[in-house]
Please model this.
Amino acid sequence: MRNRILSSLIALSCLAALPAQADELTEAKRADIMRLLKSSGASTMADGLLSAVLPRLMQQCANCTAEQKAVLQREVTSTFRDNVQTPDGYLSRLVPVYAARFSHGEIRQLLAFYDSPIGRKQVSEMPVMMREVNEASRLWAQSLEPKLRARLQAAMPQPAAQPAPK
Model:
């Protein structure tokens, strides 16, 4: 409980330190941010979230029948996908994040990039690249384990010897 309170306080202090909104969030800017989110493949992040949530839900349904598991998978997947672009959906919730960090002019520049051939290529390659980056990151972290173990063993204070029981 104490950790949750501390985490909440840290999060609130980080939010208070955010820079002021780049410029006013007009309807035109909101529409351009939504176009940017669609062009940049932001909806695939919702698929990534679905990929993280669904296995956990399936584990909780370990004693379910195959039919119940199929229904769970179908309904969770369709609920996620049906609500990505709704007025209170995933993309709409990202609008303030972009609005706080980019001016309308910068949003237009990003749109120009994502509407260009190289921008479209970047969007199409990103899912595969992210899997490869995640794998490279995992292998790198794994390669550090022996070094980390050795450093911790050398740096860790040794417990005092306990007297032998009489």
The mean pLDDT is 84. The CA atoms of residues 7 and 97 lie 20 Å apart.
